[in-house]
């Protein structure tokens, strides 16, 4: 599918994918739009959840990404800087910027992510 066909998807209907190891950290995500599952050419979106005490470990990828935090509190590493984030915070992650997301709160840290590419398969993670 690669035709930018309009679509409506419901998070409750989508599979949950998971990382839970020392290299990548602990996070789950659900892909909303990606050319391998929906008709889109220009972006990939979804929702990620970092559990209490968890972290999406430091990594980089060539594709630019953006986060919008929906729930919880945490810290966001961007290069050598660390920022506090909470519901309502937005983050822009430039190409090849090392970044990591840590849940510092007492409930799940949820964020909506957008990649500037048509497919999640285009995002090649390099963990530090």
User: How many extended strands?
Assistant: 11
The CA-CA distance between the termini, in Å, is 33 Å
CATH homologous superfamily grouping:
Jelly Rolls
Run of helices and strands: EEEEEEEEEEE
Query: Largest sheet, described in full?
Result: 6 strands, antiparallel
| Total tally of structural domains | 1
- On the 0 to 100 scale, the average pLDDT is 94
Task: Identify the strand order in the major beta sheet.
Answer: 1-2-3-10-5-8
Indicate the overall shape.
globular
Low-confidence stretches at least 5 residues in length (pLDDT < 50)?
none
Strand content: over 45%
CATH architecture: Sandwich
Rg estimate, integer Å: 14 Å
Give the CATH class.
Mainly Beta
Task: Work out the helicity level.
Answer: under 10%
User: How large is the count of helical segments?
Assistant: 0
Account of the protein in words:
0% of the residues lie in helices and 50% in strands. The chain has a single domain, classed as Jelly Rolls. Strand 6 and strand 7 form a beta hairpin. A 6-stranded antiparallel sheet has the order 1-2-3-10-5-8, with no helix packed on it. With 128 residues, the protein is mostly beta strands. The model has no long low-confidence stretch (mean pLDDT 94).
């Amino acid at each position: 599918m690669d035709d930018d066909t309009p679509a409506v998807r419901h998070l409750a209907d989508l599979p949950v994918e998971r990382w839970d190891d020392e290299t990548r950290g602990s996070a789950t995500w659900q892909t909303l739009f990606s050319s391998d599952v929906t008709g889109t050419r220009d972006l990939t979106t979804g929702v990620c959840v970092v559990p209490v005490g968890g972290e999406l470990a430091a990594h980089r990828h060539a594709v630019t990404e953006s986060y919008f935090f929906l729930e919880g509190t945490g810290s966001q590493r961007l290069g050598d800087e660390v920022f506090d984030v909470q519901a309502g915070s937005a983050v822009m992650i430039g190409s090849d910027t090392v970044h990591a997301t840590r849940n510092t709160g007492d409930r799940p840290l949820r964020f909506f992510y957008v990649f500037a590419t048509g497919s999640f398969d285009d995002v090649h993670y390099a963990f530090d």
